[in-house]
Amino acid sequence: MLNVRETGVNFIERKFAEYYAETLEPISPISSFTQREFGFIPFTEKIMIRHRGFTGPEELKTFITSITPAHAYYSAAYYKNPEAPMAKKGWLGSDLIFDIDSDHIQTPCNNEHDYWICADCNIGTTRPLQGNCPSCGSGKLRSEFWLCETCLELAKAEILKLLDFLIADFGFQQREIVTCFSGHRGYHVHVDEEEVKSLDQAARKEIVDYLLGTGLNIEFHGLKKTNRTAEWLSMGPTLSDSGWRGRIAKGVYDLLLSSTLQQLEDLEGFTKNTAKRVIKNRDRILEGGGKSASWGLVKGVGPKTLKILAMNGAKKQTSIIDPVVTMDIHRLIRIPHSLHGKTGLKVVTIPFNSLEKFDPLKEAVAFPEGRLDVSVTEAPAFRLGNEVFGPYRHERVELPMAAGIYLLCKRAAKDARIPS
Amino acid sequence: MTSMLLSPPDLAKYPFTKESRDYIKGLDLKVDELVDPDFVEALNRAEQRVQEALRGGEVKWGSERYYEIEILSYPIAIMLVASIDDDFLGRRYALAEAKRAYSFFREERDSKRLLEIAGSAFDWRAEGLASNANQSYDYALHFVDYLRNASKIRSDPWKLVNRLVINGMVFLNKDEFARLLSEEVQKHVHSTITSSPKINLPPLILQRIARITQILAERREKMRVEELPEKTMITAYPSCIKRLYDALLTGRHLSHIGRFSLTSFLVNVGVSTEELIRVYTSVSDFDERLTRYQTEHIAGKKGSGIKYIPPNCDTLKTHGLCPEPDEVCRTIRNPLSYYRTKARLISRGNTDAERA
User: How far is CA A305 from CA A279, A301, A311, in A?
Assistant: First the structure.
């Protein structure tokens, strides 16, 4: 291997093949294995190989090592005939799944690590020339996620909120919930429980709306008109309430404690004066929602104001899941422990209790050993393991294997060489 | 939940329960025996059940005295409907039986009774809540059972996000519980009809079937002629709207966007909300008040006061509601413009319309 240069793709494919051949753990803890459909995206073609079924993990492993895919998926759905064409598969049910991607979340650092890949010459860039690829001039740039600690932390915060919903509101047990880091920009949650398998799309949409707070109407959660104004609000939600009621109270709390006068003024429907009155009465409102539920007893802060506060507070209590993934009852999702072709990181399942301290940039590293010499075109800074790398621009660098593979996968580097 | 003791009047009220089915099974009847004079009353009542469904949209409470006839007439009615094998009739009958059950559910004094029916007939996981003074909930129902039935009801209070949900259970008052239970009855009756095996029926029963088929045809004709907006130019409707309208008339379930598109289209071409509500409630809807609210909302008579127009063709395409675009479709971006263009072409004469 000494001094032999390989193209990026060849090199990644070879390393992926080694990983799949060597990894001893069964490729995945998938239930009802034989009823699942599997799908793969190879390195060389962009067409997905799908409608595959396997007798068990061993056969799947044999297949994966024989083709070495860039991406590997299985269906959240169960079928009578997983290998049949879609219309003849015989849908039996589907796990309830959730996808939280950091590109769905507003993050403060988005433009610090903007990154595009050119569809024509397949080279990555951080600074397009007037929207065009600086290498070949093509206009076909597609934006790509760049591994970022802040973005992934925010995604994790959404996952923690999601898990709270799933356990406290929906009553699932910890053991029924599997959380994975996707190997790229977010997390997947699988609920593998008998009851939910039969839920149709309309029902799953209701769960999505519950988590996103879509269609939430405060009037059904205690802030409701009755004949007497005082009573109107004295039934308001409190911090000790369960479900959305408690979340609304908590949301108003967080909003009032964290907002400046200016931020309150910016709320839709608020004037300077309302914002001032709210700030002035802040403690008394908090007291009302917190203990006695007497939302109505604060002078100068009327029902309309409280409603706006409640709706804005509720916004921050939602969990930003991707609605399409959850509603799709035929969805293919990444196989746990498989590799992600855009990063070279592995999909890792995260034990429930270690989620909070889980570090994806460390624990998803699939190639912890060796070093790699690559020629980088352009790359923003990134962390992997305990080290921070870059930014790089047109230079040849020697990196730990995982970081080198990451840059190759991102089309930010080429000419891989194992240093002597 | 197995110790339910349903009296004969209960079995007559709730003929879809396991107990009622067991009771009928115990009689061990054969289809050929139904022509025996002993069963004339039951056959009469069965036919009446179907007619009530077609005419009034709700099966009524039969004779107070002859529970056995009432019980027996239910599976016979199902057999009649199933052998006619008409989608509209099947749905309409299921809805009519559900409405009947709903009115009995609401009359039940003992809250345990609904719980027993829900558990034994439909395997619902539900609990009764101890009543106390400031309690606004009577039942807690597992969210999967809730969603299976409530996700079809399109209104704010039924959205899961607006419910109290704790530890997998959704909290409901008695009326809401009864309403969901009748949704389940509707589904159950409908699937009983569609899964009934085809059997050869004796001539005496075929006569009854012919009578029902006759009423069905009349009923359908009446709906097309009277309740269809005559003053609008139906021939100028785009195919997407025609298809939605046909789906509605055969009692099929419309998606939210499908229903919105149809309603906003019809309202904009001059169909009155009264006409629309009549069409909706006669075919598919449970709750006239809700239908009225939604329709008036779209017509701009309620809520924001905005009169809505149908979604653009692009959006309809995305939702798979654009089945067969034609020549005129290429020139327009919204079903309403189609209507205006096509209506103009038609009034100019058929030759022109064909050329376009």
Answer: 12, 6, 10
Tell whether the model's pLDDT for residue B1 goes beyond 50: no
Whether residue A103 contacts residue A93, with contact meaning beta carbons closer than 8 Å, is answered with no
Pick from B101, B141, B136, B99: nearest CA to B119: B141
pTM: 0.81
Amino acid present at B163: R
pLDDT confidence band for A28 (50 / 70 / 90): low
Rounded Cα gap, residues B195 and B155, in angstroms? 31
Reply yes or no on whether A114 is catalytic: no
Query: In three state form, how does the secondary structure of A26-38 look?
Result: CCCCCCCHHHCCE
pLDDT cut 70: percent of chain B above it: 89
- B208 Cβ contact list (under 8 Å, min separation 6): B43, B46, B47, B80
A214 touches chain B (CB under 8 A): yes
Q: How confident is the model at residue A1 (pLDDT cuts 50, 70, 90)?
A: very low
Mean pLDDT, chain B, rounded, equals 84
In chain B, what are the domain boundaries?
A: 8-220, 234-355
Phi first, then psi: give them for residue A192, nearest 5 degrees. Answer: -105, 85
Q: CA–CA separation, A202 vs A221, rounded Å?
A: 23
pLDDT at B233 over 80: no
Please name the residue of chain B whose CA is at the shortest distance from the CA of residue A223: B162
Nearest Cβ partner for B157 among A203, A210, A220: A220
pLDDT digits (tens, 9 = 90+) for A95-146: 999 999 887 777 777 667 788 888 888 888 887 888 788 888 888 877 888 8
Is the distance from CB of A303 to CB of A311 less than 8 angstroms?
A: no
b/e burial code for range A92-125 (CB count within 10 A of at least 16 → b)? ebbbbbbbbbbeebebeeeeebbbbbbeeeebbb
Nearest chain B CA: its distance from A166 CA (Å): 9
Is the pLDDT reported for residue A362 higher than 70?
Answer: yes
CB atoms within 10 A of CB A43: 16
CA distance B255 to B336: 20
Check residues B234 and B265 and name the one with the higher pLDDT: B265
% of chain A residues with pLDDT over 90: 54
Q: Is A322 a catalytic residue?
A: yes
Q: Are A171 and B168 inside 8 Å of each other by CB? A: yes
> For the structural domain made of B8-220, what CATH number should be given?
1.20.930
Strand locations in A233-313, DSSP E? none
CA dist., res. A22 & res. A2, Å (int): 22
ipTM of the complex: 0.89
- Region B253-259: mean pLDDT is 82
- Decide if B280 contacts B249 (C-beta within 8 A): no
Q: Write out chain B residues lying below 8 Å of A248, CB-based.
A: none
Dump the DSSP string for A176-203.
Answer: GEEEEE-SSSEEEEEE--GGGGG--HHH
Task: Return all residues near A246 (Cβ < 8 A) that are at least 6 apart.
Answer: A237, A238, A239, A240
Q: Which residues pair with A39 in a beta bridge?
A: A73
Among B147, B156, B164, whose Cβ lies nearest the Cβ of A206?
Answer: B147
Residues paired with residue A416 on neighbouring β-strands, in sequence order = A6
Reduced 3-state DSSP string for A76-97: CEEECCCCCCHHHCCEEEECEE
pLDDT of residue B134 exceeding 70, the answer is no
Rounded to the nearest 10 degrees, what angle do helices B18-27 and B67-84 cross at? 90
Mean predicted lDDT score pLDDT of chain A = 87
Q: In the 8-state DSSP scheme, what is residue A329?
A: T
